[in-house]
Write a structure and sequence with these properties.
The protein has helices spanning 5-15, 21-60, 78-86, 120-123, 152-158, 198-201, 209-216, 235-245, 255-258, 260-298, 300-308, 313-357, 378-404, 408-412; strands at 66-69, 91-105, 110-118, 133-136, 147-151, 165-176, 179-193, 204-208, 224-229, 251-254. The protein is of the alpha+beta class. The protein folds into two domains: 5-57 and 262-412, no CATH class; 64-258, no CATH class. Strands 2-3-8-5-7-6 form a six-stranded mixed barrel. Strand 2 (91-105) and strand 3 form a beta hairpin. It is elongated, with a radius of gyration of 33 Å. The protein starts with a helix and ends with a helix. The model has no long low-confidence stretch (mean pLDDT 85).
């Protein structure tokens, strides 16, 4: 008795036992469709967020958050610059590096690779290679020792392991009386790492900084300085601030510039998946149109009586908007709860399903990420539920408008 008339009648129609069970069935399937669609959207986006976060962490375990270099690719007086950079806000680690390319030859194969020179003691401040060693230690790299640390897949391709020898051929050539000869050097494998990214496990070799400088004829120079920041998501802003604080002539880049195409592709995939799965919600929401259209036809006599008692077309329209909105609200609420619960427990549920049905969704022999990661983000949940409610509300407008146009005399002619 304390409710507005339209809300009271709309809720009463929703709860009433209908004579036409087909209408009830369509209303139920509409609600189930919204529940499944919202649940699937939340779960899939959470899993994709988890994959993106896992890949980002693995990439940034090897790639620096930001780098400082000079246009000619040779950074001089890097020690003083490193001291200056360590005083910058948000910089928690800095280490020099030398990047080059070469061809490695082992006992069973030959492979081109990225050659990186590092200072073992400082490299752990900016990368996770030292923590990802599967054999040997990064600290075993010493100046003049000509040791080398290989990615696991690269080592297997070359057919070598710790203690074996590899030959490194660099693009720089040596001019001799006999002609131009390639520069090559024998190295001893002192360690093997596995970071979980094929690009690096199959194509990265690490040397001591001094050995790399000798090999690439850089003297006392380096390629640049790699930085680790306290907030990698703000790397573009922090890198810009560092660039402004340094004298002209330095180039400061961040990880988003180095892998911009990869993360754009991931973002595009998330957008496409959102649109595709949103169609499930859209189909379920517009089933509400069928439900309400049949309901309007079924309730034409009731509408006519209400109109003769003084109900306005706006009141009639509101009654059916309330009825359709209840389906959307309940479906969205239940789907949101189910989606959140599934997203938070997907890492537990998937192994149970794999054990019960004896299947393996992500084989460790094929994929580096053999578990389904999940990262539930509440803005995604709010956006999904909001879109679902809007679609449900829009679906009620046409049937409600048709109900408001019902003429009492026409509806009661044969009653």
């Amino acid at each position: 008795m304390f409710k507005p008339l339209e809300l009271f009648i709309g809720l009463r129609y929703t709860r009433a036992k209908r004579r036409n069970h087909f209408i009830s069935f369509i209303a139920l399937t509409s609600m189930l469709g919204i529940i499944l669609g919202v649940m699937a959207l939340i779960t899939v986006l959470s899993v994709m967020n988890g994959f993106e976060q896992e890949l980002r962490n693995r990439i940034l375990g090897v790639v620096a958050h930001a780098t400082v270099s000079e246009p000619d690719g040779r950074l001089r007086d890097w020690s003083a610059l490193r001291t200056t950079l360590m005083k910058q806000p948000h910089v928690v680690g800095a280490a020099p590096y030398i990047d080059g390319e070469g061809m490695l030859s082992g006992t069973q194969g030959v492979s081109g690779s990225l050659i990186r020179g590092v200072l073992p003691g400082e490299e752990n401040e900016v990368s996770d290679i030292g923590a990802k060693m599967v054999a040997g230690s990064l600290d075993d790299l010493h100046p003049g020792g000509f040791g080398i640390v290989l990615g696991k897949d690269l080592a297997l391709h070359l057919g070598v392991w710790v203690g074996d020898k590899v030959t490194l051929v660099t693009p720089q050539a040596t001019v001799t009386p006999a002609g131009i000869l390639p520069r090559l050097k024998r190295f001893t494998v002192i360690g093997v790492f596995e970071v979980g990214m094929y690009e690096y496990d199959n194509g990265l070799a690490v040397l001591d900084l001094q050995d790399a400088a000798t090999l690439f004829r850089l003297g006392d120079g380096v390629s640049g300085i790699r930085l680790k920041l306290d907030d990698l998501l703000r790397a573009p802003v922090i890198a810009h601030d560092i660039s402004k604080s340094l004298p002209p002539g330095y180039i400061v880049s961040d990880w988003t510039q180095q892998h911009v195409n990869f993360f754009r592709a991931v973002q595009m995939e998330k957008t496409v998946m959102f649109v595709i799965l949103l169609l499930i919600v859209a189909v379920a929401a517009f089933n509400i149109v069928s439900t309400l259209v049949m309901m309007v036809r079924d309730k034409e006599a009731d509408i006519a009586v209400l109109r003769t008692l003084g109900a306005t077309p706006r009141s009639i329209m509101t009654i059916f908007i309330v009825q359709g909105s209840v389906i959307g609200i309940v479906g969205t609420l239940l789907g949101g709860i189910a989606g959140v619960l599934l997203a938070l427990n997907v890492e537990t549920i998937v192994p149970i399903i794999e054990h019960l049905f004896h299947v393996e969704f992500l084989s460790a022999d094929v994929y580096y990420i053999s578990e389904l990661p999940s990262d539930l983000q509440w803005p995604d949940v709010i956006k999904i539920c909001g879109v679902s409610l809007v679609l449900s509300l829009v679906a009620t407008l046409y049937p409600a408008w048709r109900a408001a146009r019902t003429q009492p005399a026409e509806a009661l002619r044969y009653e």
